[in-house]
């Protein structure tokens, strides 16, 4: 664990990291803040939020508060949202629809978030829990985008983790905005046609006698 030291940084605009030793209570109480980035697609101008989360594992009540808070946050967003990460929702295998953590239901409440569910499910971590912990969710207009996901490295030999690889299997998700790009191109063509028509109309008006 590291702490950021500010005033005595080596130079302006830099921060120095120094190791610190948390107490047991600090480990238990720590919370991982969401990492949220606003992206803009250069081809279409489409903007969206991309969020990475890692919710509480040992404290179910706190995890449920986090899931409910994410749902409330997403309700207020005008931009599409893609949210990924380790949510610790324990979607049991082979069928977790009736056996999963309450946090999942709080997350997708009122269909604010939708799970981009892989076609084939396997456990996403190397622990003894036979469940899915890692999810890709979409909210807002992102739910209208064509999307798919896949849990990679399905071979049982992937586990356990070591110094080279994670103790979680990666999940790959693909979102297609091709239709949006074509709609934008069509709109630009129409704007160009309107501008040309206005230009011709202006020339005609200018030729009229005063």
What can you see in these coordinates?
With 210 residues, the chain is α+β, with helices and mostly antiparallel strands. It folds into three domains: 1-30, no CATH class; 31-173, 4-Layer Sandwich (Deoxyribonuclease I, Chain A), CATH 3.60.10; 177-210. The protein is 27% helix and 28% strand. It has helices spanning 24-29, 60-75, 102-107, 178-206; strands spanning 2-5, 16-19, 35-40, 47-54, 81-92, 113-115, 131-139, 146-151, 171-176. The strands form three sheets. The chain has a five-stranded mixed beta sheet with strand order 3-4-5-7-6. A hairpin with a 6-residue loop joins strand 3 and strand 4. The longest helix is centred in the C-terminal third of the chain and has 29 residues, at 178-206. It is elongated and about 85 Å long. The model is unreliable at 1-27 (pLDDT under 50).
Strand-helix topology:
Elements: E1 2-5, E2 16-19, H1 24-29, E3 35-40, E4 47-54, H2 60-75, E5 81-92, H3 102-107, E6 113-115, E7 131-139, E8 146-151, E9 171-176, H4 178-206
Parallel strand pairs: 4-5
Antiparallel strand pairs: 1-2, 3-4, 5-7, 6-7, 8-9
